[in-house]
Design goal:
The chain has about 150 residues and is of the alpha+beta class. It has a single domain, classed as Chitinase A, domain 3 (Roll), CATH 3.10.50.10. It has four helices and eight strands. Strands 2, 3, 4, 5, 6 and 7 form a six-stranded antiparallel beta sheet that branches. The chain has a two-stranded parallel sheet with strand order 1-8. A hairpin with a 3-residue loop joins strand 6 (about 65-70) and strand 7. The protein is globular and about 45 Å long. The model has no long low-confidence stretch (mean pLDDT about 85). Keywords: Hydrolase. Its EC number is 3.2.1.14. It is an enzyme of class 3 (hydrolase).
Amino acid sequence: MGLGFYGRTFTMKDPGCMHAGCEFSEVAKGGDRTGTPGVLSAATINKIIENGVTVLHDLEAAAKIVTWDGNQWASFDDAETLKIKLDYANQRCLGGTMVWAIDLDDGSLLAALSSVSTKKEEEVLPSLNFDTPGFGTNWDFIPESEKVKRDEL
């Protein structure tokens, strides 16, 4: 089962209807770290949330929803929803879980996943080093001030 380390974003058609199932007019503008319309990185979502916006938990979808700027909408995961999804996979004896778009994480989602997983971090990510770019990805687009260091996990 895949776990997305990014948010899916939309511009809602009716600002009065901002919950799951409401009609959207288009995918939202790309985030400052992705440049891809309809996709936000964990760092960008965290920055939006820090501005005091409303975050809702869609229990049916096991996802969080954040709305801002009157008509912008994003669904994303955090520690709470990642735990729900891991429990779901374990209860159904699924063969495993995997992360989609690990390069869009600022370290917060890996830390969240590690905190709710029944596996030890060393079993899952034995050579992870946040101080060095890895996984074949250039992490230069994330400012140093927003990177999570291994000793902070």
